[in-house]
Amino acid sequence: MPVRDEDLRRACGPGGTLVELDDRFERIGARYSGKVRENFTRGDERIIVVTDRVSAFDVVLGTIPFKGQLLNAMAAYWFDQTSHIFPNHVKDVPDPQVMRAVECTPIPVEMVVRGYLTGVSETSIWRAYERGERTFCGHRLPEGLAKHEKLPENIVTPSTKAPKGEHDESVSKDVLFERGLIDPETFEVLEAKVLELFAFGQAKAAERGFILVDTKYEIGRTPSGEIVLIDEIHTPDSSRYWYADSYETAMRKGEDPRALDKEFVRRHLVAQGYRGNGPPPPLSDEVRCEAARRYVEIYEGLTGETFQPNLEPPAERIARALGIA
Length: 325
Prior knowledge:
The protein is of the alpha+beta class. It has one domain: D-amino Acid Aminotransferase, Chain A, domain 1 (2-Layer Sandwich), CATH 3.30.470. The protein is built from 9 helices and 16 strands. It has helices spanning about 5-10, 65-80, 125-130, 175-180, 185-205, 245-255, 265-270, 285-305, 315-320, and strands spanning about 30-35, 35-40, 45-50, 55, 60-65, 90-95, 100, 105, 110-115, 135, 140, 150-155, 160, 210-220, 225-230, 240-245. The strands form 4 sheets. Strands 8, 9, 12, 13, 14, 15 and 16 form a 7-stranded antiparallel β-sheet that branches. A hairpin with a 2-residue loop joins strand 2 (about 35-40) and strand 3 (about 45-50). Helix 2 runs parallel beside helix 8 (about 285-305).
């Protein structure tokens, strides 16, 4: 049963989505705010609160109803599904929008894996190819590829981790080595592992009728030195998904493939002339609700589980779950 329209509209109203956390949450531990997640560290534990904020072009655009619940559930699902390939930082999920995890030291590199020549931002692999560039992050690209076409093989195109409010930078592995962000031996191990993770995700998505187009992985070290996955994995925020059954038709017609991720929001903004420079135009409730429906659809489609939103005011519910109400 799909999420009811009246619940989506109500969640668009005041207090219906989680935008910020008030000062009482500071009691949890030392705070770090990301674009979407609020992180609190206490000892060797991290409490991650997934807000309903949505970002694109490295800019926070507003909120989407139930997005935090969907992202948290999707990340928990994929962390569980992939733990045999790559260990992760998850301890448990005490609330639909909260994850308890092992406190890790992040490796300051995002491992981005791409399977298709696509993207709408000025820094995307497609925009670079369109400009005539045939080397992207150290990978040589063949001539004659079309927009959205499958690459000859999946490739890792790492990026730097920019501070909040700044833009990540896609670079070759040699640039990472020159800047001292990661050593060649560690990169080689991680490159093989994320390619394995991505292939696993693509196979699972294909079973459900979707194409996992690209994604990013964040990685850290536990206090004992173990390298683990952190943050999120294969969610609609960190990954691009298309419907498999209409992909070939879209390619023949020269159209964009039907997407089931926040690419819908990106394309909506691009259609208004916004690509990340200056203040973003506001998202209408109609766009916010449609984005929420797409998040629900990809969650249910990939996991095979029905999404049942918790309709309580999120801030109070989360405070109660964390014992600070």
